[in-house]
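Changelog entry

Holo records now carry the ligand SMILES as an explicit input line rather than a separate metadata file. Below, a converted record for pyridoxal-5'-phosphate, shown in the new format.
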Amino acid sequence: MSGEFVSGLKCRLCGKRYPKEALNFCTEDFGPLEVDYNYDEVAKVFNRQVIESRPRTMWRYRELLPVDGEPTVGRHVGGTPLIKADRLAKALGLSELYIKNDAVNHPSLSFKDRVVAVALSKAVELGFETVGCASTGNLAGSVAANAAAAGLNAYVLIPDNLEQGKVLGATIYGAKVIAIQGNYDHVNRLCSQIAFRFGWGFVNVNLRPFYAEGSKSMGFEIAEDLGWRIPDNVVVPMAGGSLIGKIHKAFKELERLGLVTGPVNTRMHGAQATGCNPISNTVKTDALKVRPIRQPNTIAKSLAIGDPADGYFASQLIRDTGGWSEDVDDEAIVECMQLLAETEGIWAETAGGVTVAVARKLIEQGKINRDGSTVLCITGNGLKTQEALVDKLARPVVIKPNLAEFEALVGAEARDLASSTA
Ligand SMILES: *Cc1c(COP(=O)(O)O)cnc(C)c1O
Ligand SMILES: [Zn+2]
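Structure line, unchanged by the conversion:
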C-alpha cells in the first residue's frame, strides 16, 4: 500500500541513507535517523478529497506515515477535537485561540497513542513479537494498551517515582512494568542495552524514527480542522523535544504538497517545567549545546527528561521559526490546570498546566502576538496526575441530608454572590 511512499531512513546530520529497519542512529556520526518519503509519489494520490473521505483517525494521512500496507495497531487513534477556546482566550487576552485536545485520545488518553500506533504497526511488519519502551508515564500506558490489543508482549520501563495513575494505567493491560531506581535518563540508557541484547522492538529506541513520525498527525489534524490553514503560533510541551519538530514538519509537508497555502511561518513555542528545563534554558541563554539537567524535580513528570534526545533540533527550530521557549514552576502549573478546567471544561494533566502557563508567560512577554491565531497542544489527561491536585483544591463541604442545612449553606453562598456582583 503506502510502502512505496517511504524511501528509507536518512541521517539528520550527514544525510547518509539507510533501509527501513529497526535502527535509530547513523553508524558514521551517531546522528539520529529520520524517515524520508518520495513526495512526488505521495502527491499523485494524496489530496484533500481523498483525506476528507476517510474516517477521522490519524490514518487518514497514512501516505505520510511510515507504515507499509494497512496499519494493524492503533487503528482508532487520533481525530481528537480542535476546540475554539473563547473563554480561555479572554482570560489570556488573545483574539483567536484553539486547544488541540489529545487528553481524550483513544485508547490511553494522551498524544502518545499516535507515536505508538505507528511504532507498533511497524514492529508487527518487522516481525517483532516483544516490544517495550522507556517512559515518563504516558508512553508506558500507551505501549501497554496497544500491545495488549495487538497480542504483543510488552516490557515497560519507568522511573520509580511516577504517579499511581500512570503505573496502574500500564499494569492493568498485563504488560511487564519495571520501575527503575533512577530518573528517565537512567531508564533510557538501560532500554538501549536491553533492545540490543534481547533484540526486542523498543518504540522510542530502535523504532524511534518510525515512532516519531506518528506525532506529525497532530499537526495534520490542526491544519485540516482550521480549514486547511496554518496557525500563527503553536505552543507545544517538550520532553524529549520530538513532538514540536514533527508538528512543524507536518505543516511543511502540507505546504509542499499544496494542501495548504504557504509560506508556513508559524512560530513554534516550546513549554517546559522550571524543574526540568534543558531545552527552554538552551533557547533563553542562546546556547549552542543543550546542557542536561541531572536531577529533574517537577510535578510535570511526563516532561521530566533531563537529557532530551531531540533537544538540539527543538531549540534550533524554535529559533528558526521566530518562536520562543519558557518554563514555569509547580505553582503556576497547578494554577493553569485550574484555569483550563474552569474556562474550557478540560481537565489536563500537569503537562497541560505547563503549556497554558507558558503560553500566558509568552503573551505577557509579547512573544505571542495577541491578534494572531494560537493553538495550545494539550497532550495528556488530568485523571492520571491526581497527586498534583489532592492538597490544592477545595474539599467538598459536608452537610447532613436535610434541606435546612442545604439552604443555610447555599443561602449564604447566594447572598455572598449577590453582594459581590452588586
Ligand atoms: C511525551 C509527552 C510530551 C512530549 O513529548 P516529546 O516528543 O518527547 O517532546 C508532551 N506531553 C506529554 C503529556 C507527554 O507524555
Ligand atoms: Zn550521519
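Spot-checked after migration. Residues 82-108+215-390 form a domain with the Rossmann fold fold (CATH 3.40.50.1100). The mean pLDDT is 96.
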